[in-house]
Design brief:
heterotrimer, A alpha/beta, B alpha+beta, C mainly alpha, A: alpha/beta, Rossmann fold, Ubiquitin-like (UB roll), de novo design (two linked rop proteins), 3 domains, five-stranded mixed sheet, four-stranded parallel sheet, 17 helices, 9 strands, about 10% strand, globular, B: alpha+beta, Alpha-Beta Plaits, two-stranded antiparallel ribbon
Chain lengths: ~450, ~80, ~220
């Protein structure tokens, strides 16, 4: 695990909320001391009104209003509901879920119980990356809670494959049901027919943690930080230009300048590998909020903020990510299966065009191909993997347009060749035992 | 009642019959997969559409009564190579 | 003119329609395999190949119907209607006629589910359609076992052997292409070579280097 630390309290009132103040252990006693017992409401759906008033949106990337998901699952008639806490964190650049599950797991587990009560679920699942240490710890914590009578619904821990789309809700639901962890064609959506055909609530683990605090302190408290339209705090993975990686919990609306050292950066990637690039000078004037980022093609997503150091070639980074995304295609849909590798190969060609000895002639077809392929894959897959890849690609070509021009003349403005953004090794070079699409047999 | 023609991209394996039967609405991209025109199905093509849906060897086409959930409207796609 | 219940006419009719049925079923199998692997028949658009598959199968149903009814009506051998659909209850040659009944039952299931495929959904339809691979060899066994015509050399035996060979070749062709994505749909190999820095030095490959050649060959 990279150097992930809990930040020192920022000094602004009320922060941090989810992450414990530096030095506080994550044990059950400490958790109960800081937050109190699980505030069960005693009736299904009683919590939903508070969640609605709080304006909580999903923290897994889609920012969908949580109360609407709760309502949809609570009112579905296709069986007894299932609640899944999604800690798959398929995004290689993101560590926030890992940090949360390490530092404040009981908040997540509280949220899981409260969500289960809210939708009348009989089963709760925590879906976590296959990291033996983390899972063993969480299993101990679950047993401890059960021994103390804290949990009303049994929690099953299930390992997630280390794939990019493993956290997609239909892929997750398919895997938990015993099938392959690849996305399914929708409709029906998982809130109608998910795990074992039952209504399934899938929420990111951070969302559940926020839910656990809203249940205790109320919607007005939640809205005490953040903006009017995007209330609350969000966990962010900050990748600084010097290579350090931290997880922080700023209020939404915090300026990006306060989070990233932009002086040493040429561009910023916001939202992760399905997000968008923004030039550093522009980023310096922006805040961490969708209202600020959407006009530039970005979004807060799963809270990944990566500052590209000056001196790195943005095209090369983008090409590396594009290749990773192509390899992470589930391979079920023709346009994605074919389009993404074509895009990645073209990006690699663009990135490699720089610095060819005597200066290679420009190949205008590459850009035309990229434009065409982007248009061809967008919206034509069963999930949003091709769409996110296209968003990333288009922003890269826009922000690194100067780099493209330089490369076509045989020059590169990024002499530092070391890869910056992390891309996990391909399926055949997985470092974890479960780098394929299925769960390890031990857990079934 | 308007209906929309949708393809299940997972089931679709690019046979291409749909583009032969319904060239007004469907063309094939450079990899052989169908690109369906946006919007509701014109009533004059209802019979051909039903035939395309029935004849797809992978049963990947479906006629849904409600408008498209995922608006890909106004996206002009170059299909590169079209096979009809 | 012979009377309609003359044994000779009915028996000939049954044998003749049986042979034609086998030829038709073999053709349907071959075209079905072709469609599955997205092969073409020269000069025909794909929807016409599909149409041929369907029409020949319906024609086969017609010929099988006459084949069964004439055999039942024929008083020379004792086969009642039940024996045509319930395997192995025939008085005459229970085994061979029974195999015919098995083949007929499967064929009926395949045809009915195909007519209703839009309502049954992909999975159910596919599962039953696969049984066609069972129906055809059983029909062949039925033909050989119950027909004295095929026990000696002659044009009927040649025809039967040709059908068998053709289907076997088609199946072998299909198996050979099992791992290959039909139609040009392979993704290009990702250029994974080392990046040249200014001056032409080859630097270290990027993370994930040359091992990440991507040639996805999805099975369809």
């Amino acid at each position: 695990m990279n150097a992930v630390t809990a930040p020192a309290p920022a000094g602004e009132g009320g922060l941090p909320r989810l992450l414990p103040p530096a030095g506080l252990a994550a044990g059950l006693a400490a958790h109960l001391g800081r937050h109190g017992p699980v505030p069960y409401r005693g009736a299904p759906r009683a919590l939903i009104a508070d969640v609605r008033a709080s304006g909580l949106t999903g923290r897994g990337g889609a920012a969908f209003p949580v109360y609407r998901k709760l309502e949809a699952v609570a009112t579905a008639r296709t069986g007894r509901a299932v609640v899944v806490g999604n800690g798959a964190e398929g995004e290689p650049a993101s560590h926030k879920d890992e940090a949360l599950l390490t530092l404040a797991p009981h908040l997540v587990l509280d949220g899981l119980q409260l969500a289960a009560e809210a939708v009348g679920a009989g089963q709760a699942i925590l879906y976590v990356r296959h990291d033996v240490l983390l899972r063993t710890r969480i299993e101990t914590q679950i047993s401890e809670r059960a021994a103390n009578g804290l949990d009303r619904v049994t929690v099953n821990l299930m390992p997630a494959p280390g794939r990019f789309v493993a956290g997609e809700e239909s892929a997750l639901s398919s895997l938990v049901s015993g099938g392959k962890g690849v996305p399914r064609f929708t409709p029906p959506r998982v809130f109608e027919r998910g795990v074992d055909g039952r209504p399934t609530l899938v929420q990111n683990v951070e969302t559940l943690a926020h839910l656990a605090l809203i249940a205790r302190h109320g919607p007005a408290w939640f809205r005490g930080l953040g903006t009017l339209n995007e209330p609350g705090t969000m966990l962010c993975t900050l990748r600084q230009a010097d290579g350090s990686v931290t997880v922080a919990e700023p209020a939404i609306g915090t300026s990006l300048r306060a989070l990233l050292d932009l002086g040493a950066a040429s561009a910023v990637l916001v939202g992760g590998y399905h997000g968008a690039w923004i030039p550093a000078e522009q980023a310096a004037r922006l805040t961490l909020s969708n209202s600020a980022l959407r006009p530039l093609g970005g979004f807060t997503g799963a809270g990944v903020l990566a500052a590209l150091p000056a001196g790195r070639c943005g095209l090369a980074e983008a090409a590396g990510v594009a290749r990773y995304l192509a390899l992470e295609s589930a391979g079920q849909c023709g346009p994605c299966l074919n389009g993404l590798p074509s895009i990645a190969a073209a990006m690699t060609e663009l990135a490699n065009e720089g610095g060819w000895g005597g200066g290679r002639g420009p190949d205008p077809r590459v850009l035309a191909d990229l434009t065409r392929w982007a248009g061809l894959v967008e919206g034509r897959g069963a999930c949003h993997h091709p769409d996110g890849t296209v968003r990333f690609l288009r922003s890269a070509l826009r922000v690194f347009a100067d780099e493209v021009r330089a490369h076509r003349r045989g020059r590169c403005n990024g002499p530092d060749d070391r890869p910056f953004l992390p891309v996990r090794a391909g399926p055949d070079r997985g470092q974890e035992p479960d780098e394929n699409w299925t769960r390890t047999g031990a857990d079934r | 009642m308007t209906s929309t023609l949708r393809v299940n991209p997972i089931a679709c394996s690019g046979h291409g019959l749909c583009a032969e039967l319904l060239p007004e609405l469907i063309s094939l991209d450079e990899w052989g997969y169908p690109v369906i025109a946006d919007g509701p199905v014109p009533p004059r093509l209802a019979r051909e559409v039903r035939r395309a849906v029935t004849d797809c060897p992978a049963l990947a086409l479906a006629l849904t009564p409600e408008p498209e959930r995922r608006p890909a409207a106004a996206i002009r796609r170059e299909t590169g190579r079209s096979e009809s | 003119m012979h009377a309609i219940t003359s044994g000779t006419a009915l028996w000939y009719a049954s044998r003749a329609t049986g042979v034609v049925s086998l030829v038709l079923m073999s053709a349907v199998m071959i075209i079905g395999i072709l469609i599955n692997r997205q092969g073409r028949l020269p000069g025909l658009p794909r929807f016409a190949v599909l149409g041929l598959h369907r029409n020949l199968s319906l024609l086969a149903v017609a010929f099988v119907a006459v084949h069964v009814l004439s055999a039942v009506a024929d008083s020379f051998v004792s086969i009642d209607l039940a024996a045509a659909v319930i395997p192995f209850v025939s008085a005459y040659e229970p085994l061979w006629v029974g195999l015919g009944a098995v083949s007929l039952d499967i064929m009926a299931a395949v045809i009915v589910t195909s007519l209703l495929r839009r309502h049954l959904g992909r999975r159910v339809w596919r599962a039953v359609h696969w049984l066609a691979y069972a129906s055809w060899p059983v029909a062949v066994a039925h033909s050989i076992g119950s027909s004295p015509d095929l026990r000696h050399a002659g044009p009927l035996l040649d025809l039967t052997l040709t059908c068998i060979a053709a289907v076997i070749i088609a199946i072998a062709w299909r198996l050979a292409r099992a791992g290959v994505v039909p139609r040009p749909r392979r993704a290009p190999e990702l250029m994974a070579g080392p990046r040249l820095a200014p001056g032409g030095r080859a630097d270290e490959p990027r993370a994930g280097g040359p091992q990440m050649n991507l040639v996805p060959e999805a099975r369809r």
